[in-house]
Write a structure and sequence with these properties.
By secondary structure, the protein is an alpha/beta fold. It is built from 8 helices and 14 strands. The protein folds into 2 domains: 123 residues, 3-Layer(aba) Sandwich (Rossmann fold), CATH 3.40.50.2300; 95 residues, Winged helix-like DNA-binding domain superfamily/Winged helix DNA-binding domain (Arc Repressor Mutant, subunit A, Orthogonal Bundle). It is elongated, with a radius of gyration of 19 Å.
Length: 233
C-alpha cells in the first residue's frame, strides 16, 4: 500500500478545517497537517523536516491574503500543487488566484470528494512534471528527468527502476518498506522477478547516492526490507 501523502490545510474556519482534515484522512490517500493562520503555515513549511506534497489554501485568512501567500511561497521555491478555496468564484477572483501560482481554484461550498479527486489529479500531473523536485541528502531528486543533482551541480543519471524505487521509499520516508512490497510496487506482480533483482538495483543505487556505500546513511537495510532517510547529511 502506498504511503499517505502529506497535505497542509490552511483554513481559519475551525469547523471547516477539521471537517477537511477528517475527510482527507478518511480517503486513505492523504494525511493532513492543519494551520489556522499564514504565520502558522509558514512555521510548518519552514520546519527542518517539512515535506508537503500539496497545499489546500483559503483565500481570506486573519493575518493576510491567501493569494499573496501563494505568490510568496512560489518565489521561495515551493513547487507543490496548491489548491485555493474561496467564497467568491467570479472570473476575476479565479484569474487572480491562478496568476498567484495556484494550480486549481474551488469555490465554497464544495464537495470533499471532488476536492480529493482534484488533489489526486494535480499530484499525478506534478509527479510527472519537470517541477517535481525532492531533496534526498545533498541531492535534488528529479524523477521526470531520471536524475539526481548534487550540491556541485553534477547530474547523476538513474534508470527507470531506480527512480521508481526512490520515489516509493521517499513516500515512506524513514519507515521500513519490505522487499516484497517494493517488488510489487516497482515491478508489479511479475513472478519472474526475485528479491535478488531488487537487491541488485539497490546496490547500484547506493553506489550513486551514498558517500560511503559500505556505511549507508540514506538508503539503509532494515529487518525485512529497506528504509530511506531523505534528511540524512
Amino acid at each position: 500500500m502506498s504511503a499517505a501523502r502529506p497535505i497542509l490545510i490552511i483554513e481559519d474556519d475551525d469547523a471547516l478545517r477539521q471537517a477537511l482534515a477528517d475527510q482527507v484522512a478518511s480517503s486513505g490517500v492523504f494525511q493532513s497537517i492543519e494551520a489556522a493562520t499564514l504565520d502558522e503555515a509558514s512555521q510548518h513549511l519552514g520546519a527542518a523536516e517539512a515535506r508537503f506534497d500539496s497545499i489546500i489554501l483559503d483565500v481570506n485568512l486573519p493575518d493576510g491574503n491567501g493569494r499573496d501567500f501563494c505568490a510568496k511561497i512560489r518565489k521561495q521555491g515551493h513547487t507543490m500543487p496548491i489548491i485555493m478555496l474561496t467564497g467568491a468564484a467570479e472570473e476575476g477572483d479565479v484569474v487572480s488566484g491562478l496568476d498567484a501560482g495556484a494550480n486549481d481554484y474551488i469555490a465554497k461550498p464544495f464537495r470533499v470528494k471532488e476536492l480529493i479527486a482534484r488533489l489526486q489529479a494535480q499530484l499525478r500531473l506534478f509527479d510527472n512534471s519537470e517541477d517535481a523536485v525532492f531533496t534526498i541528502g545533498k541531492f535534488s531528486f528529479r524523477p521526470a528527468s531520471k536524475s539526481l543533482i548534487g550540491a556541485d551541480k553534477k547530474r547523476i543519471r538513474l534508470t527507470a527502476k531506480e527512480v521508481d524505487i526512490l520515489k516509493f521509499l521517499y513516500r515512506h520516508a524513514k519507515r521500513v518498506v519490505s522487499r516484497q512490497t517494493l517488488l510489487d510496487e516497482v515491478w508489479g506482480y511479475n513472478a519472474s522477478v526475485t528479491t535478488h533483482t531488487l537487491e541488485t538495483h539497490v546496490y547500484r543505487l547506493r553506489q550513486k547516492i551514498e558517500v560511503d556505500p559500505t556505511n549507508c546513511r540514506l538508503l539503509m537495510t532494515a529487518p525485512g526490507g529497506y528504509r530511506l532517510d531523505p534528511s540524512a547529511a
